[in-house]
Sequence to fold (232 residues):
Amino acid sequence: MKDFCAASCEFCIGESIGSECQNKYADETCDMLAKHEIHLMQRFRYFMACRCPRVCGICTAELEKFPPTSPPTLPPTTQDSYDVEVECLRLHNEIRRYHGAAELTWCPECADFAQKVVNGNQDSKKPRTHSSPEDRTWLVEGEQVVHGESLQFDSSQIDCLTAVKSWYSERDLYDQQHPLNSMLESAGHFTQMVWKSTRRVGCAKSKNVLACIYEPSGNTQNPYTIEKNVQP
Fold:
């Protein structure tokens, strides 16, 4: 373990993993994960240090190239000064490009419905609940279309960056050998974000709750369809 996954034993420092300090994952993959600050998440600290040490600031020769990064400054929480459409759409599309999915466009109807979901989850004394598939089904270009939904809550404040980072962290939980089980049990937010057949998204937020609605819905419960739509 110390030789092949030193990070899990808290041995991942420059000297212990070799003077070259090479990433075990492709450099592009590590750079992308670091761009979304996966290496700053406590649950992925050792995972990233072992597989992508060059972006974690633990390689003596790489410290200047990859200086330690500080947590992002959260944008203002008021709708007037923080553009949910621009930020949520940008973050979704950055991730989708990496996973071979076409960019999404903004869906005003989805954003309106997302606002209803947010409004219905404002009571902190009640559990946060998703809307029903029936409520998320409406007419689009003459056809009844079921829409997908992702919901995120934060006790202090929420924004698109926080939500998308949380949803994207499920990528490591997606198992290509068992796509249906992993999607249903642990990686559903990730698979919906990168679902290739989804074309539009609309999001809304309050201070503590953010919801995104996807058109059409992803996460079809068919292993073949999942493999066709999800490129890990």
